[in-house]
Amino acid sequence: MRAGKLDRFITIERKSETVSDSGSVVAAWTEIATTRAEIVKASADEFLTGFGEAERGTTVFRLRYRAGITTADRIVFDGIAHDIKEIVEIGRRRGLEIRAVAVS
Predict the structure, then answer these.
(1) Helix, strand, or coil here: 98?
(2) What stretches of the chain show up as alpha helix (H) in DSSP?
(3) Angle, alpha carbons 31-3-89 (nearest 5°)
(4) pLDDT of amino acid 46
(5) Which of 52, 58, 99, 104 has a CA that sits 20 to 30 A from residue 75's CA?
C-alpha cells in the first residue's frame, strides 16, 4: 500500500449509549480514529424500496490495517456518514478495504 494514494482523511465512529439524568438512554456517535484513506470506488446504486426506487451512494475505502473496526461502526467522509457494510483484510494485516453506504 503506497502512502501517496492515501490522500483523503476519514473519521471512524462508534455508537455509544449513555443514560441521561432523566433515566432515558441516549445514543451518540463517538470518534475512535481519524486516518488517511484512498477512495477506490464511489458509485450511486439504485435499489427498490417500499416506496419505489431510491438512490444510495456506495463507496469503497482502502486504509492501513486497524484492528477493532466492525460493521457496527461508521465512516464520516466530507461531512457525510457512511454505514459500514463489509470489511476485507488486505494481505496479512497490511490494510483494510471497507465497503460503505452513505446514510441519507
Answers:
(1) strand
(2) none
(3) 65
(4) 52
(5) 52
Going along the chain, which residue ranges are E strands?
8-19, 25-49, 52-64, 74-77, 80-90, 95-102
Alpha carbons 12 and 30: distance in angstroms, whole number: 9
Task: Provide Rg for the chain, Cα atoms.
Answer: 16
Amino acid at 70: T
Of 1, 51, 10, the closest CA to residue 32 belongs to 10
Dihedral sign for Cα atoms in the order 15, 16, 22, 23: positive
Of 83, 67, 65, 64, nearest to 75 (Cα)?
83
Alpha-carbon distance values, 1 to 64, 97, 99, 103 (Å): 8, 11, 18, 28
Residue 30, C-alpha cell as written in the block: 463517538
pLDDT at 73: 96
> Tell me, what's the pLDDT at 51?
52
19-76 confidence digits (pLDDT tens): 988 989 999 999 999 999 999 876 665 554 555 554 567 899 999 999 999 999 999 9
